């Protein structure tokens, strides 16, 4: 049974009746006026949490008071608390808990707008998927060229005409989920004077005769994702594209996500970044207990879009950042344009600045694809620790190994090779590999502790650990390692166990944190 989304409303008129028909939301209302003192107030909240669990969202409609803030200290978690903008003032702004729990004002136009916002964001979990460009169908009358670049993109080049003309349709549809605001983000690039508009049709029963709604969006208006408002019925989103002008139109994946409006990307507090090529990464900052270090976790390969590792990182109690790569099929190893890679480093630096931490009060980490991000950016940031499991570092070699060692398995490596080097030849393979090793060779790891758990018979990147160890030794890095028998995906639970164990060792030895392992 799906977990319910739990809301606590403090003050104001009880909005619970508006959610009576929502079986996935539990609404608790607390009227501060019925309590004789704030201790009773806090006790009521504690008792509710003890019986039913933590609240996913707290909505405050009462003036600032120390008693209220003491209650929020008990009940709130980062990003979960919003104060009605009518009650937001300098006292809220200046309170340290607002910084630690990232409490924010909620703006709305009127009551209907407020109800709509609350109903749109009160759902458990996260969801995102995508339509691959391999499902694109080109208009047969198009006289130009059409070439697939792996799973990355379909590239159309030529004369698209002087008027907007249908050019693409999709064999598959996106699903429009009842009760959700649906966010749509198409990946595309244009050259020459080509202009494109996308048509999104909501169809109730999958036939053209039942078009419920239609959205026509120019590429100029897609600097941010399209958000299709919440509706009370399921539907299909049927896609097509029109184009005009001369040049090229490169069409990548079309991403669909459950939106939380201005409250966050995927989860409350989640954020996204897109560069000039519309390449994305997602990131989430949690201040934890605001004590060093800042732990950064790079997500592994995942075809389902969203954040990975939240509960694992949250258990360390320290501040953390989650970073995910939703490109291609399940990630593109955090490689991209100079703008893209600089933005990842800036997100990490912003986290350190926000906390007032020194540059080396930092641990970077990741599993499998995420290990590449941790090592690649770790070589540029000189953290106190780098914790990785099942390291993949020679991405060109991973792609090269596919035909003979892993037929039809992890074709993403070929897409990453194509995306970064525009070819599949040996020189392209070597050049992509060297992109990693150049960063590693130039790094200063003399103050960095490495913790590496690896598969002894890894069939993706067989020599990753053996190639990495001599360089780390030469650079006087401290290295802890653990080899586990098997191929890349044979024993993920053991790798994850060592990953967490190594994390705890570094947290204790380098930062004096008493960990669960040590208790």
Distance N terminus to C terminus?
Answer: 34 Å
Radius of gyration: 25 Å
> Average pLDDT, to the nearest integer?
94
Total of DSSP H or I helical runs spanning 4+ residues:
13
Portion of residues within helices? 25-40%
State the shape. flat
Biggest sheet architecture = 8 strands, mixed
Low-pLDDT sequence parts: none
What is the domain tally?
Answer: 3
Main sheet: which strands, in order across? 18-19-21-20-22-23-24-25
Strand content: 25-35%
Structural class: alpha/beta
CATH homologous superfamily label of the largest domain: Alpha/Beta hydrolase fold, catalytic domain
The name of the CATH topology of the largest domain is: Rossmann fold
- Write the CATH architecture name of the largest domain: 3-Layer(aba) Sandwich
CATH class of the largest domain reads Alpha Beta
- According to DSSP, the number of beta strands is 25
């Amino acid at each position: 049974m799906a977990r319910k989304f739990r809301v606590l409303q403090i003050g104001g008129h009880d909005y619970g009746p508006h959610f009576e028909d929502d079986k996935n939301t539990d609404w608790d209302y607390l009227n501060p006026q019925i309590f004789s003192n704030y201790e009773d107030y806090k006790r009521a909240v504690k008792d509710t949490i003890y019986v039913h669990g933590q609240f996913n969202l707290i909505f405050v409609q009462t003036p600032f008071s120390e008693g209220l803030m003491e209650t929020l200290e008990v009940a709130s978690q980062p990003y979960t608390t919003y104060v009605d903008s009518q009650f937001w003032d300098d006292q809220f702004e200046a309170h340290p808990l607002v910084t630690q729990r990232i409490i924010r004002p909620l703006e709305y136009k009127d009551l209907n707008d407020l109800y709509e916002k609350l109903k749109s964001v009160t759902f458990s979990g996260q969801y995102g998927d995508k339509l691959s460009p391999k499902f694109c169908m080109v208009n047969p009358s198009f006289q130009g060229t059409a070439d697939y670049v792996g799973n990355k993109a379909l590239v159309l080049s030529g004369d698209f005409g002087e008027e907007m003309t249908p050019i693409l349709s999709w064999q598959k549809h996106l699903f429009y989920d009842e009760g959700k605001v649906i966010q749509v983000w198409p990946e595309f690039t244009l050259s020459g004077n080509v202009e494109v508009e996308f048509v999104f049709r909501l169809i109730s029963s999958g036939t053209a005769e039942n078009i419920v709604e239609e959205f026509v969006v120019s590429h100029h208006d897609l600097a941010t994702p399209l958000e299709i408002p919440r509706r009370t019925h399921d539907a299909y989103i049927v896609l097509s594209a029109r184009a005009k002008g001369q040049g090229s139109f490169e069409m990548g994946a079309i991403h669909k996500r459950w939106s939380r409006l201005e409250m966050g990307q995927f989860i409350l507090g989640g954020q996204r970044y897109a560069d000039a090529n519309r390449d994305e990464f997602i990131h989430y900052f949690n201040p934890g207990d605001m004590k060093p270090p800042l732990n950064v976790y790079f997500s592994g390969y995942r075809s389902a879009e969203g954040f990975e590792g939240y509960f694992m990182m949250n258990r360390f109690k320290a501040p953390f950042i989650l970073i995910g790569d939703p490109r291609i099929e399940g990630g593109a190893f955090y490689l991209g344009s100079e703008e893209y890679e600089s933005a990842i480093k800036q997100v990490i630096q912003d986290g350190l600045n926000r906390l007032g931490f020194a540059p080396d009060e930092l641990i970077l980490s990741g599993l499998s694809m995420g290990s590449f991000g941790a090592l690649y950016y770790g070589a540029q940031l000189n953290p106190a620790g780098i914790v990785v499991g099942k390291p993949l570092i020679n991405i060109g070699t991973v792609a090269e190994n596919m035909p003979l060692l892993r037929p039809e398995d992890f074709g993403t490596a070929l897409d990453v090779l194509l995306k970064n080097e525009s070819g599949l030849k040996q020189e392209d393979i070597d050049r992509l590999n060297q992109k990693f090793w150049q960063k590693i060779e130039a790094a200063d790891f003399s103050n960095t502790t490495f913790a590496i758990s690896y598969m002894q018979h890894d069939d993706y990147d067989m020599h990753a650990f053996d190639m990495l160890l001599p360089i780390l030794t030469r650079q006087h890095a401290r290295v802890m390692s653990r080899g586990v028998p098997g191929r890349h995906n044979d024993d993920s639970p053991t790798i994850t166990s060592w990953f967490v164990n190594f994390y705890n060792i570094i947290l204790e030895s380098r930062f004096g944190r008493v960990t669960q392992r040590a208790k």
